[in-house]
Amino acid sequence: MTIIKLALPKGSLEKATYQFFENAGYTIKGQTRTYRPIINDDSISVKILRPQEIPKNIQEGTQDVGISGEDWIKENKADVVKLLDLDYGKVRIVVALPDSNKSKNFFRLY
Q1: Per-residue pLDDT at 63 exceeds 90
Q2: d(CA 110, CA 99)
Q3: Structural domains of the chain, count
């Protein structure tokens, strides 16, 4: 039997990812105590990784499929195929500038 190596994200995407799998009928046990939790499907091997590592792991073949942010795919320039947009785990982008009362240096945005 072929075993699928599945990489799941640690951190901000974690809770929504486990909920996604639970809604699909899977049970993942031990996710809070190990980086190798058990899933109720003998044909799947799960590994917990940082989301920024997952695209490169898939590209290099150490994992077969994984869940990560599209931002990490782009930042790593990973040669992977996007299978599905899960539509969770939004990234918030902000612009930070020094407080003008404390510093004479500033940026002007156009």
Answers
A1: yes
A2: 19
A3: 1
